[in-house]
Amino acid sequence: MTNDKIALQLQPKEYKSAVKPVWCPGCGDFGVLGALTKALAGLKIQPEDAAVISGIGCSSRMPTYLSTYGFHGVHGRALAVATGLKVARPDLTVIATGGDGDGFSIGGNHFLHTCRRNPDLTYIVMDNQVYGMTKGQASPTTEPNWERAKLTPSGTGINPFQPLAIALASGANFIARCSSSDSNGTARVLMEAIRHPGFSMVQVLSPCVTFRPEQREWKRSLIPAPEDMQRTPDPAEAARLLMTDEGVYTGILYVGDRPVYQPKLKSEIDNIATLDEEFRL
Predict the structure, then answer these.
(1) What top-level class would CATH report for the domain 16-278?
(2) What's the CA angle centered on 156, arms 153 and 162, to 5 degrees?
(3) Which of 15, 31, 133, 161 allows an S-S link to 140, with CB 3.0 to 4.6 Å?
(4) Cβ contacts of residue 88 below 8 Å, gap of 6+?
């Protein structure tokens, strides 16, 4: 008999906590929660071996609804916390979750440099092209002519942020786009993203039916990318696809092989008193 941990096969529902989601009825984030629990179950990752880190926003409530370890942080800082955790605890499966406002506005700089560093973690961005929690303002990914926001009733007039193209240019090692209406397909992509070494960026188009009811049409407009365009290891090919697909292709759009960022964990300090001395004024 050994002391090796035996991985028990859990059902997706066993990865959910006792806290019931407070998202609006019809919110796409329900589908992402279901997809993530299916992915964790499919990979046989025990709840105590995973940590889900988030920032602020509707989608950033995700850790509360899971039975894994979790950290609900401050606005835009999910990737900074997730990177630190993964470096300190490389044995954990670390997943960061958030929305387009949290991730690409106040968290934009962390996003760029996490792509650049390439730590072994997965970032799930539930992109609804609006700030839902604060009642419907335009976000970084909102189209320039959207006129329903009270703060920008004539539209923003600003080109939207292109998260996947920017992730590719900044060095992300795995790039995919999914639809929250396809929970099983999203689960399969998340399984591959979690397994793939390095920084995996998964954009999930997740409708906000409260402030952007027109997004209900996404499930009819999104289409799988052609097979010959998926999983390319060539960043130039991936760039051509991401800059010309108008955001409608789903699937795994780039798979890279960059070295994973994992500094050596070795301290020269043997006791806490020595550490205290270093900070003494």
Answers:
(1) alpha beta
(2) 140
(3) 161
(4) 265
